[in-house]
């Protein structure tokens, strides 16, 4: 179907687009929270720091938690991207599984505890089971299922146990290394645990 | 060898034996901590509640932590006894392993979170890695090794993987359900996790 030769009306004179303001608020909030902590910062503090009015911030986010959710979501996406890249980088399902354990642990440790002091937000998110966390956990479980499915097709993994059962159990083994609340108390085992646990899991999957 | 017919000298007039006083202090402290919390109670509070002088308590325990260690030790021994009884009650190594997962989880949940509000003490113990906790963890690992060894001898479990490696990995799987700090964040999974995880572990052990 041929495109009509229409004239695109120029946008009316206005400020930055909504998504730009949202990004600006999130960037400033990330900076502010990582310096002063999420729990201790109010929307008023944030407004003052950015130079916006509190009311203006509330036009874009209904609460501090909504800003936190966005930051948390970004952080979880970053972890997930690293894992997906590592998993995509090999064709062997057993190696994919090993990398899931290793990279989830390393990236979670780095993002939750070192790089940005975002632990406060991650902890609130996990404690209150924010939507961003639920979505993340669902995506991780789906990725795990895909890797298991691939390994069943390639003949690397056994097929007797229902896929759901296998996936749920392995997720329970992995969870203490990607949930920030659990990870904080597992930090003394993170150098060896991913390798030992993925070896155990691979033994459980042998055909 | 015939016993000599000696006259046992009567004990000099004195108060209750040391171990009786210690038990009395521990019993009163358990009661007091479970009502007011371990963190919030000082040795002075405790002395007042028992009706002893603070100095008298310090004759028997060098610190509040020393009393807490004794209470914590009792609690961990109780959990361990339940597990050992359940394990001893079957001859089948796979069933022993299942029971370890189930009974450690149930008994820890009950003792740390319900019966006595001893969570405060258990949490301090785990955070500060008290001697009572270290000893407990070592005993749990030893019990696990014994069950694995039995299963290897009976032919139920594979023998290719070094015993140490198997035991360490399984302990890592079990740990989130017996460490009180981890268990508090696993409470939404404790109804199904022990069965699912022990099934996974048993698959990993199949010869």
TrEMBL record, chains A, B:
<keyword id="KW-0238">DNA-binding</keyword>
<protein>
    <submittedName>
        <fullName>Transcriptional regulator, TetR family</fullName>
    </submittedName>
</protein>
<dbReference type="GO" id="GO:0000976">
    <property type="term" value="F:transcription cis-regulatory region binding"/>
</dbReference>
<dbReference type="GO" id="GO:0003700">
    <property type="term" value="F:DNA-binding transcription factor activity"/>
</dbReference>
<dbReference type="InterPro" id="IPR009057">
    <property type="entry name" value="Homeodomain-like_sf"/>
</dbReference>
<dbReference type="Pfam" id="PF17935">
    <property type="entry name" value="TetR_C_27"/>
</dbReference>
<dbReference type="InterPro" id="IPR050109">
    <property type="entry name" value="HTH-type_TetR-like_transc_reg"/>
</dbReference>
<dbReference type="InterPro" id="IPR001647">
    <property type="entry name" value="HTH_TetR"/>
</dbReference>
<feature type="domain" description="HTH tetR-type">
    <location>
        <begin position="19"/>
        <end position="79"/>
    </location>
</feature>
<keyword id="KW-0805">Transcription regulation</keyword>
<keyword id="KW-0804">Transcription</keyword>
<feature type="DNA-binding region" description="H-T-H motif">
    <location>
        <begin position="42"/>
        <end position="61"/>
    </location>
</feature>
<dbReference type="InterPro" id="IPR041478">
    <property type="entry name" value="TetR_C_27"/>
</dbReference>
<dbReference type="InterPro" id="IPR036271">
    <property type="entry name" value="Tet_transcr_reg_TetR-rel_C_sf"/>
</dbReference>
<dbReference type="Pfam" id="PF00440">
    <property type="entry name" value="TetR_N"/>
</dbReference>
């Amino acid at each position: 179907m041929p495109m009509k030769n229409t004239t695109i009306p120029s946008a009316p004179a206005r400020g930055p687009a909504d998504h730009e303001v949202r990004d600006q608020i999130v960037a400033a909030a990330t900076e502010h929270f990582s310096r002063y902590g999420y729990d201790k910062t109010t929307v008023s503090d944030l407004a003052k720091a950015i130079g916006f009015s509190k009311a203006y911030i509330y036009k874009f986010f209904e609460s501090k938690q909504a800003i936190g959710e966005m930051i948390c979501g970004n952080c979880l996406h970053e972890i997930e991207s690293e894992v997906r890249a590592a998993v995509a980088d090999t064709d062997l399902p057993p190696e994919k599984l090993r990398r899931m354990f290793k990279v989830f642990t390393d990236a979670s440790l780095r993002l939750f505890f070192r790089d940005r002091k975002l632990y406060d937000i991650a902890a609130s998110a996990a404690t209150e089971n924010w939507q961003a966390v639920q979505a993340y956990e669902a995506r991780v479980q789906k990725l795990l299922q895909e890797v298991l499915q691939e390994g069943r097709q390639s003949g690397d993994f056994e097929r007797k146990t229902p896929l759901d059962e296998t996936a749920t159990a392995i997720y329970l083994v992995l969870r203490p290394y990607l949930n920030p609340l659990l990870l904080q108390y597992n930090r003394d085992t993170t150098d060896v645990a991913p390798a030992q646990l993925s070896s155990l899991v691979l033994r459980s999957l042998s055909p």
